[in-house]
What does this fold into?
Amino acid sequence: MSSSKETQAFAQRLRQALEASGVRISPTVVANEFNLRYWGRSITPHTARNWLLGKSIPTQDKLRVLADWLQVGPDELRFGQATGLQKAAEDTGMTAGFNMADREMLSRYMALPVHDRRTVREVVAAMHLATQVRGAS
It folds into this structure.
């Protein structure tokens, strides 16, 4: 993939993640929210604009902050679904201990749009918290 196509694809994934998180797609909003979470040198709205327009891609440390903020995987945000959790699981054997139903569920999860995956993560987190609370009682 050429550099231009790569940066354009990143920009599209960033805009989709912002939309799925309910964040207005605005360079100023992105810069302000990013700077609240990043402990390094702050970015300007112009930098955020370049990310949103596909003119540049953030460095890895900034990409991780964006991914954490938008609740998506950094690899997914940077490279797309092809190198996300599913590929990592296949490459590392992470799913080796999973039964067929677990693998099928993971495959279906990875096929969901970003905003639906976020909802699933929130439901699982709430269920996990409820289980911990019941266990502590």
